[in-house]
Amino acid sequence: MQRIGVFVCHCGTNIAATVDVKAVAEALGHEPGVVISQDYQYMCSESGQNLVKDAIKEHNLSGIVICSCSPRMHENTFRKAAAAAGLNPYLVEIANIREQCSWIHRDIATATEKAIILGKAAVAKVHLNTPLTSMESPVVKRALVIGGGIAGIQTALDIAEAGFDVDIVEKEATIGGKMAQIDKTFPTLDCAACILTPKMVEASQNEKIHIYAFSEVEAVKGFVGNFTVKIKRKARYVDEVKCTGCGACIEKCPMKKVPNEFNMGLDNRHAVYIPFAQAVPKIATIDPNYCMMLKNGKCGLCSKVCAAGAIDYKQQDSFIEEKYGAIVVATGFNPIKLDKYDEFSYNTCPDVVTSLELERLMNAAGPNGGTLLRPSDKSHPHTIVFVQCVGSRCSDEKGKPYCSKICCMYTAKHAMLIRDKYPDTEVYVFYIDVRTPGKNFDEFYRRAVEQYNVHYIKGMVGKVTPKSDGKIDVQASDLLSNEQLHIDADMVVLAAAIEPDKTARPLATMLTTQMDTNDFFTEAHPKLRPVESATAGIFLSGACQGPKDIPETVAQGSAAAAKAIGLLCKNSITCNPCVAHSDELMCNGCSSCEKVRPYGAITYSDKEFRMPDRTIAVRRVASVNPAVCQGCGACTVACPSGAMDLSGFSNSQIMAEVDAICK
Amino acid sequence: MDNNLKEQILRSSGVNVLKCMRCGKCSGTCPSYDEMEYHPHQFVYMVEKGDIQKLMESESIYKCLTCFACVERCPRNVEPAKVVEAVRLAAIRQQGNNHLTPVQIPGMLDEDLPQQAIVTAFRKYTK
Fold this sequence. Notes:
The structure holds 2 protein chains of 2 kinds.
Chain A: E1 4-9, H1 21-29, E2 34-40, H2 46-59, E3 63-68, H3 71-84, E4 92-96, H4 98-102, H5 108-126, E5 136-138, E6 142-146, H6 150-161, E7 165-169, E8 184-185, E9 190-191, H7 192-205, E10 209-212, E11 215-223, E12 226-233, H8 248-252, E13 258-259, E14 268-269, E15 272-273, E16 285-286, H9 292-296, H10 301-305, E17 318-324, E18 326-329, E19 333-335, E20 352-354, H11 355-362, E21 383-390, H12 407-421, E22 426-431, H13 441-450, E23 455-458, E24 461-466, E25 472-478, E26 483-489, E27 491-496, E28 498-500, H14 504-511, E29 523-525, E30 529-533, E31 538-540, H15 550-568, E32 572-574, E33 580-582, H16 592-596, E34 602-611, E35 615-624, H17 634-638, E36 644-646, H18 651-662
Parallel strand pairs in A: 1-2, 1-3, 3-4, 6-7, 6-18, 7-10, 18-31, 20-27, 21-22, 21-27, 22-23
Antiparallel strand pairs in A: 5-32, 8-9, 11-12, 12-17, 13-14, 15-16, 19-28, 24-25, 25-26, 29-30, 33-36, 34-35
Helix pairs in contact in A: 1-5, 2-3, 5-18, 6-7, 6-15, 12-13
Chain B: H1 3-13, H2 25-29, H3 40-49, H4 53-57, H5 60-63, H6 69-73, H7 80-95, H8 105-108, H9 115-125
Helix pairs in contact in B: 1-7, 3-7
C-alpha cells in the first residue's frame, strides 16, 4: 500500500493569494493512499524542506507530491530533500500550481478547483512511480570553441589556462573577427590591433589550443560531456603545413581586382591572399571564385614562385571528427545590409558609408593608409554627418526591434578622432537618444561634445541626396529647435544595426539550442545563467547572445570559459535516469523509433526468442543505450506496438494523470 | 484636453501614437516642412497629449501633401500622414463647410495639373 505525503506551498502570496491552499491540502488529504497533507508558507525554505524530510521519516512515506512552482524551478530542490531523508528522488512529483494556475487565474474558486485537480493528477502519477537510479557518463576533457573573434579567443585562452585542450573553429582564413578590423577602442582610445594581435599570437602558440581556421562545423552528435563534432576544413588550395606566409605568391598573382572583404570592399586584393599582415594563422588562401588557374586552368604563377611548394590546386574540402566534453558558441555579429534604406542613398553614393567602412577608411592598415579621404574622389571631407539608429529600434520589417548598443559609443569615438586629427572638419551627429551606460562611457560622450565640439543634434535624418557638385544634401529634423535642417555634407556615416552571424541559425539546429526571434542565442536564464544555453554542455560567448561591446564580450568569454572548465574538470556527470527502454517481447522491429531518435541512442539487433512448442525464432528488436538517451520521449510516441516506454514518464503514468484530471 | 476628439482621431486614423519613439524622422523627411506651422512629429505628439484643437485650427492640415514619405520611412510604423488626414477630416466635419467648391476650380486650373490632382483635392478639401 502506498503511503503518500502531499505538501502545498503558499509561495508567499504568489500562490496563496489566488489559490485557497488550505482547501487544496484538505481535498488532497482524502485522495487514496495519501497519509499526510500539509500546507506551508515557503516549502522551498530550509524549514519547509525539513517539514518534508520529517514527514518522510515519521510516516514512512513511499512517495511525495509537492504542489508549488514549476518543476523547472524547484524539482531538484525537493528531489535532494527526499534523497536526504532516504526516499528515492524519483518518487517526488511536482504539481505546478503557480505558473500553470495561480499566476494565470484571477478567480479564487476556479484557481482552487484547478489546483486540486493538478494535485490529484500528481497523486495518481506518484502511485505508479518507481525508484530510478542515475548512471554516470564520462566527460571528454576537451572543449570546442566555435568562432575565433575576441570572444572565442578569450574563452579558448581561459580554458587552456586551466589545463584543458581547446579547439577553435573559425570560418574565415584568420582568427581575430571584427575586432581585427577596428582601429581604436572606446572609451580609452587604445589601439585595437595592439591589444588583440598579442592575444591571437598567444592563442596560436599555446600548446593546448588548436586553431582550425577556414573551417566550419558540419555536424554535431552526442550530449553533454560527450559531443562528437564533424568539422569541415574548407580547401585553401594551399598546404597549411608547408606555407610560410612569405607572400611571394600574392606579389606575383595577376588577378588583382578582387574586392577586399577585410577592408569592407573599399579596395582590392589578389586572388591569393592573406587577410591582413597580423593574420593567425599566417597562411595564404586561394579564392576559387577569382583564381584563373582554378577557373580555367590558365596561370599557375603562384605555384611557380612558391619556394615551399605549398600551392595545391587539387586540394579538396576535408573532414575531421573530434570528441568534446563542452562546446562554446562565439559566432559573433555583422552589420545589417542597408539595401532597403533608399532614403540614405547608401547604394548609390560612394561617400555614404557604414561605420565599419569608416573604421577601415581611418585605419592605418586600411585602404588609405589611415588618412581619411572620400571614397569617390579621394578628397579630404570637411563636413561629416553621422546618422544613428539606422535599422536599430525599428518595428518595421526593414530593421531590428532592439538597440544595437555599441553605436552611440563608437560614433562618439569616430567623431572625436576626426575632430582631433582634422580640426577643420565639422562633425554632426543626429541622434534619437544617446545611450552611454558603461564605465566612463558618458564622460567619453561628453568629451566629444564639450572638448571636441562635435555637433550633437536631437533628430533623425530623413533624406540623403547626392548632388551634382559632389556634395551630399542631408535633410534632417532638429527636434529641439523645431526646424528642418539641410546640411551640405562631404560624407555621411550610417550606424547600421548589428545582427547575429548568418551561420548561427543552422548551428543552433545542430546543437539543439534555442534562439530568440532575432537569431540571438537564448541563455538558460536571463539573469542567473547568462552564459549557458538551455542545452547542457553548450555555452555562449560574446555577441552571439546579444549586442555587446568589447569589454562585455571579453567578460562573457571568460565567464563561459569558467562554466566550461567547471564541466571539464569533472570525471563523469550524472545522467538523467528518465530514459527510454524497449520491451523486446512487444517490439516488432519496424524501425519507427529509429527514424525519430534525435540522439542516436536506439540500435537494432537480431535476438533469439523461445516460442510456443519449444521452437526458437530470431527477431529484430530495438534496444536503447541509456547513456546516450536524453529521455525526449519521441520514440514512445512513434512506436506502434507500445514497446517503447520512458522511465519516470511511462505511458501508464501519463494515462493515470489524464484519468485523474478527467474524473 | 478633449478625450472624445482624441478617441475619434485615433479611431479614424487607425494609428497608435504611443508607438512613436520621438526620433523625428517624419519631420526630417517631410517635403512640406517649411510650409507647416505644426510638423508631422508634432501632429503625433499633440494628438497623444489630446492637444488637437490647435491642430484643427492650423493651416498645417492643408499643407500636408499626403505624399506618405513619413509613413514609408517611420521606423516604428506610426504613419504620421494618417494622423494629419484624420485631424483634417475632423476639422472639415466639425466646421461643416467645404474648403473647395466646384465653382472655384476653373479659376485655379493650370494646364499641367493632372486630373487626378483635382479629384484628390476634392477628397482632401471637401466633406
